[in-house]
Design goal:
single chain; about 375 residues; mainly alpha; two-stranded antiparallel sheet; about 60% helix
Length: about 375
């Protein structure tokens, strides 16, 4: 099989694994397709189960069991003597520009000036563009490197890639309706697509920029290296099993949205990893086989940090999103229920996996054979 045909087959299989299972679930459930494709999305048509203490305790236990040991061991193993102190540099001018963009964007998002009324619905993007500048400037200040200055082509490519990336999550959300947007009901379909795409374009640059900033803290990075070595290697049988499981979970998400809503964050990762294993390719999890857990821990932390800012700036904006999460919708921090923040942890790894599909996208966490020793 030629390299081109292999790449084409891989792309087709990945697209099928990502998009077809939820549609299959709708077909099995006998639900009409039309209401899932409207732009802007229709108001609530998926009705969720009420809060359950049993479900809340179960999900909380699973989250703590999955994330707790990694964070505890990684943070406890940091050793100041091993941490290299970065050479501090002056904060660059474009970083201060980002600070100004955040301040002005935040002010306009949370106020209601009459003169700004025609643009009041479009306050999401400016503070996030500012944040992207600031987080790149912070990484540059600590290390002398950042995406904006040293990989400008890749940095710019992240913006359109990010739009497509988040539109996929909007697609998955149609089947579970865990969040919905308010304040944009009057948008025409094309207007909704254009302005939403602009906002969605900031997701990957923000998360990946935060990952690179976290990498600049040597003590933090050292804590997540030399840990448990993941046994075995990805293989074609494993890839096939993961793809089958992902397909079943994706279909089940449409059939049982109250119980499988978390697949919005897990199924994309399964589709990407399963396809890569099936074609004997490298994955973002390869470093785990050498005990390097940074490709899991740092993106998860980065997404959680970005998530807190997303929810904070969203809280008082005119055009904003609200959550309706089944069974665990309690103890809100801003608009997000407490356990909803757990979704940002796998989302960070999904961001890294998606970026790895881009040309040159594996630079931030190379494979085990390419990873330099941290000592």
């Amino acid at each position: 099989m030629t390299l081109f045909l292999k790449g084409l087959l891989k792309a087709v299989l990945l697209a099928a694994a990502l998009f077809l299972p939820p549609l299959l679930g709708l077909l099995l459930a006998g639900q009409p397709l039309e209401r899932y494709l409207d732009l802007p999305p229709r108001p609530q048509y998926v009705w969720h189960a009420p809060f359950s203490w049993t479900a809340f305790a179960t999900v909380a236990t699973l989250v703590l069991a999955a994330a707790g040991p990694l964070l505890w061991r990684g943070l406890a193993r940091t050793r100041p003597a091993q941490a290299l102190q970065p050479a501090r540099r002056a904060f660059p001018w474009w970083g201060w520009l980002g600070v100004a963009m955040i301040a002005v964007g935040w002010l306009l998002a949370w106020t209601r000036y009459d003169w700004f009324t025609p643009l009041q619905h479009h306050t999401f993007t400016p503070p996030w563009l500012g944040f992207i500048l600031v987080i790149n400037a912070a990484a540059w200040q600590r290390t002398g490197h950042c995406m904006l200055t040293h990989r400008p082509g890749f940095f710019l490519a992240l913006f359109p890639a990010s739009s497509l990336f988040w539109w996929y999550f909007e697609y998955l959300n149609r089947f579970v309706q865990n969040w919905q947007y308010l304040g944009m009901e009057s948008f025409l379909p094309l207007e909704y697509v254009l302005f939403s795409s602009l906002a969605f374009s900031t997701v990957l640059p923000a998360v990946l920029g935060t990952v690179q900033w976290l990498q600049s803290f040597a003590r933090l990075g050292l804590g997540f290296t030399g840990m448990w070595k993941l046994p075995g290697r990805g293989s074609r049988p494993l890839g096939l099993m993961v793809l089958i499981f992902t397909a079943l979970a994706g279909a089940g998400m449409s059939l049982w949205p109250d119980h499988l809503f978390a697949m919005v964050w897990l199924a994309p990762l399964g589709a990407i990893l399963g396809t890569q294993w099936l074609f004997a390719g490298k994955t973002v999890l390869d470093p785990l086989h050498t005990g390097d857990w940074r490709p899991v821990a740092l993106p998860a932390l980065a997404a959680l940090l970005c998530g807190l800012l997303w929810e904070f700036w969203n809280a008082h904006s005119l055009a904003h999103w609200e959550y309706r999460i089944p069974l665990v919708d309690r103890f809100r921090i801003f608009e997000m229920p407490l356990l909803g923040y757990a979704g940002y942890l796998p989302f960070g790894v999904v961001c890294l996996a998606a970026v790895s599909l881009l040309p040159g996208g594996r630079w931030i966490f190379p494979g085990p054979e390419e990873t330099p020793s941290p000592h």
